[in-house]
Amino acid sequence: MQDTKRLMKLGLFLMSPGHHAAAWRHPEVQAEHLLDINFYKQLAQTAERGKLDMIFLADGLALWDKYGSGVSHSITTRFEPLTLLSVLSTTTNLIGLAATVSSTYSEPYNVARSFASLDHLSGGRAAWNVVTSISEEEALNFNREGQLEHDNRYERAGEFVEVVTGLWDGWEDDAIVLDKDSGQVAHADKVHALNHKGKYFSVRGPLNISRPPQGRPVIIQAGASEAGRELAAQSAEVVFAASKDLATAQSFYTDMKERASKHGRAPEDLVILPGIYPIVGRTKEEAEAKARLLDDGIHPEGGLHLLSHFLDYDLSGYDVDGPLPALPDVEEVNGGKSRYQLIRGIAEREGLTIKQLYRRFAAARGHQQIVGTAEEIADHLEEWFIQKGADGFNVMPPYLPGGLDDFVELVIPELQRRGLFRLEYEGRTLREHLGLKRPVNRYEQLRS
Ligand SMILES: Cc1cc2nc3c(=O)[nH]c(=O)nc-3n(C[C@H](O)[C@H](O)[C@H](O)COP(=O)(O)O)c2cc1C
C-alpha cells in the first residue's frame, strides 16, 4: 500500500487541440476534431490510464474578438465544460472531472445544482473551478456595460461560494428514505432551507437534488492577487497557479498554506498545483525540435493579440523588436492582476522584446515550460515537489493527443519508478485521490 500523503497530484489541463496557440497547425493534430466527442473520450481514457487525479476544463464567456486576429487566427470554438464533462462521466470510471464556472456571471442556485448533478452522475468525481472572470467582453454578454471592479468580483465570489456550499449541505446524507411500505420519500427535518440574504444574493433553498456523493464537490481557485489568495485560503481545496520559477512557487506555496492556517485549516486541506507545460522527447534534441516546430506556427498578428488580450493593452503599432511600452501599474488593472504581473516580470527580468515575449507566451501563457526527456521532466517535477513549491501539477500538453500520450507513456512511468506517483487509484472519489476530507454536513454537526 502506498503512502498517499507523499505522492504527487496530477491534473490534466485539457485545452483542445493543445495549449500552444499554434497547436492546431501541428502536422499530427487533426484540428477538425475540436468538437468531436470521440476525440475527448479518447483523451479522457488516456488520462485515466495514466492514473491522473483529474481532467480540468477552463472556460471563458465570450469569443476573443476584441482584436481582429481573435476570430481569424485563434481557436475560439469549444464545448461548454459541464456539458462535456457530463458525457465524459459516463465513459470514465475514476478520474476527477473539474469544470470552470464564473461566479461573476452565474447564480449560486444553478451552480450548486449543476455540480451536484455532475457529482451524482460521476459517483463523486466533480470539482468546480471558481473564477471571477477577467475580460470586458464577458460583461457585455451578461447585461452589463462593463466589468464589476476586481475586488467586488472577489467579494461576490466569496458570498457565492458560501451560498453554494450551504445549498449542498441542505440535504443531510441520510435525508432520503424511499420506504415503499410507508410511502415516505425523505425525512423533511433533514432537508433544510438556506434562507440566505446577503449583499449579492438572496437564496431560499433547499436544492432540488440530494447531497452530492462527495458531500461537497471539490472547490478549486486560480486567482493569485491579494483578493484571489484570500478567497482561496478561505474556501478552496485546490489552487491552480502560474509560477515562473521555483523560488516564486515556494513563496506562493508557503504563503497559501500560512493563509489557510489563519482560517483554521490544515496544510493538507489546500492542494497547490502549478501549471507545467512539458514537451517530451526521447532525447533533448528531439524535444527542442518539437518546441521549434510549434513555435514556428505562431501567426505574428495572432501572437501579438494574444499577449495584448492578457495584458488588456493593445500592443498593435509598437515595434515588435523593441521592449514593451510603459504599461499601467497593477493597481489600475481591472482584469486579471496576477498574470499581468507575471508577464511584465518575465519581460523585464529577461529583457525580452515584444516578439520574444509573445512567442514565449503563445506556448504556455506564463506557466513553467520544460523541454526535455522524460527523466529531465521528472527531475524538474521532483525538485518542485520535494522543495515545497508544489503538491503536484496541472499538466498542460502542448498539442493533442501526442503531448498527452508522451506524458502518460514516458513521464508517468518515470515518476512511478521514483515512487512519486500512484501505481493504481486507491479511492473512487476525487476527494479520495487528492487526500481531501469529506466535509461534515453543517446540520449534522449541529445535531451532534
Ligand atoms: C491555471 C489557471 C487556470 C485559469 N482558468 C481560468 C478560466 O478558465 N477562466 C477564467 O475566467 N479565468 C481563469 N483563470 C483566472 C483566475 O481564476 C482568476 O479569476 C483571474 O486570474 C483573476 O485573478 P487575479 O486578479 O486574482 O490574478 C485561471 C488562472 C489559472 C492560473
DSSP summary: helix tally? 16
Average pLDDT metric: 95
Instruction: Quickly give the structural class.
Output: alpha/beta
Helix coverage percent of residues?
40-55%
Low-confidence stretches: none
For the terminal residues, how far apart are their CA atoms?
A: 34 Å
Structure notes:
The chain is of the alpha/beta class. 41% of the residues lie in helices and 13% in strands. It is built from 16 helices and 13 strands. It has helices at 37-49, 69-73, 81-91, 108-122, 136-140, 150-169, 226-235, 246-262, 284-295, 300-311, 337-350, 354-364, 374-386, 402-417, 430-434, 442-447; strands at 9-13, 54-57, 96-102, 126-131, 176-179, 184-186, 196-197, 202-203, 218-221, 238-241, 271-280, 368-372, 392-395. The strands form three sheets. The protein has an eight-stranded parallel barrel, surrounded by eight helices. Helix 3 runs parallel beside helix 4 (108-122) and helix 4 (108-122) packs across helix 6 (150-169). The chain is globular, with a radius of gyration of 22 Å. The two termini are 34 Å apart. 47% of the residues are buried. The mean pLDDT is 95. Residues 58-60, 100, 131-134, 222-225, 228, 240-242, 275, 336-339, 394 line the site of flavin mononucleotide.
